[in-house]
Amino acid sequence: MRKVDPVKYEEKRRAILEAAARCFGRNGFHGASISHICAEAEMSAGHLYHYFPSKEAIIEAMIDANLERAANRFGETAKGESVLDALVTHLERSAPDDGRRASLLFDMFAEAGRNPTMARILSKHSHEMQALLVDLLRRGQEREEVDRSLDPEVVASVLISLVDGSKTLTLRNPHLAPHSYGEALRTLISRFLSPPASK
Q1: Which residue in 38, 54, 63, 184 has a CA-CA distance of 20 to 30 Å to 193?
Q2: 146-156, pLDDT tens digit by residue?
Q3: Is-contact 122 56, C-beta < 8 A?
Q4: Mean pLDDT of 165-181
Q5: Does one domain contain both 75 and 96?
Q6: Helix, coil or strand: residue 15
Q7: Residue 29 and residue 107 in contact, taking contact as beta carbons nearer than 8 Å
Q8: Residue 141 CB neighbour total at 10 angstroms
């Protein structure tokens, strides 16, 4: 039996995910077939199925990668970065620059209404992102960077909706400069989360 090189395996897996993201961006979830993804990744279907058994599995891996990036970003607060900076950076990096990720997000929401596998994937992602944000917010409250009167569970849900909503910015206004909405998000989050000024 041939031994699998874990480094090469992970490199190929990432290449497939990048190819799939391009296909989903161009054609949407339904429009991007496995054959399209195979062509983009320059491999046979049999080879691709060795890494991912379905399109849903590809989407789940993309979501897991996003969660890992968020966990790493929020983990920086343990090294001294402020909670506000961590949140705004996450929002800025989540907002798309060309609208393609927004279209895919809406495709996924629609698909979840009729596809139990996709519904499970999105529910799992929401639960795990909620947990990351709640932990971050509680850390901010302990450090007196976040208003202690706020309920971290409720605020985390609001922030998830804000992240999702931010993905529509370039669809609604393609000419909006990324730095301008980044500054607006920073102001919005700062005023929402900051402890009240002492009188």
Answers
A1: 63
A2: 999 999 999 99
A3: no
A4: 72
A5: yes
A6: helix
A7: yes
A8: 18
